[in-house]
Hints:
The chain is an alpha/beta fold and 275 residues long. The chain is built from six helices and 14 strands. Strand 10 (143-149), helix 4 and strand 11 (171-176) form a beta-alpha-beta unit. Helix 1 crosses helix 6 (211-222) and helix 2 (103-116) packs across helix 3. The longest helix is centred in the first third of the chain and has 14 residues, at 61-74. It is globular, with a radius of gyration of 17 Å.
Amino acid sequence: MSTNQIRANSVLPARREDIELHTADGLTLVGELARPLDRDPVATLVCLHPLPTHGGMMDSHVFRKAAWRLPALAGIAVLRFNTRGTGSVRGTSEGTFSAGVGERFDVAAAIEFAEFADLPDIWLLGWSFGTDLTLMHGLDPAITGAILLSPPLRFASAEHLAAWAAQGKPLTALIPEFDDYLRPAEASARFAGVAEVVPVDGAKHLWVGDAERVLDEIVKRVAPGVPVPLPKTWDGPMESGDMNAYADRTVAAFADVPVPGPLSGPPDSAPRPRE
């Protein structure tokens, strides 16, 4: 069998199924669950995507590559979904963007789905806006810990950070050297006593060109028994994903769109573990 180079659009074998999540406020969200093809998963990632107002979705490139590679290379199950009002090739979830408020039900529905599917060792993987959802709404007894990619701390507050510190669940923040919102020095100060801060030299907020480094750092924490760096080649069947489906979701396309902040009104409370 030939050896193939793993490229940006490489799709390695996995058991993939379209899923629907049902929220406590009555919405249906669309997603996908990718599991190892020939073994039980060693751990699970529940992915919370960047801002949908600026092109974020379940197919944002780091999450897409995680789902395409990690079941085969690391034995990790990857659950991706579109938060309320967000669309992708998979479809559009019901509802409308709620600036981190209504999305609390989306996070709960994803964790509940992973629990009911008997997926092991559930970790949240938030990216940008998804890190705010993780910090505000993800502190659940069912999760093992969380990994934050490019956390802007735009919606999450010091109160949320304090709640994570009090619970003591593992929390890691990968901080790009040239991030647009929060760079390593400030991140170290703001996450002091709360999270492991990992500066990533040369990286930027969107991790373009750095997905492999991100996946290695994720695997180190979620599946420490798996050797890293992950392989760059694959001996076996491999498909190619469509890299042109989101040609209109570039940084330039959203350059003039204001970045939303927290909605006005009473601040959201610190995360409350489920009963």
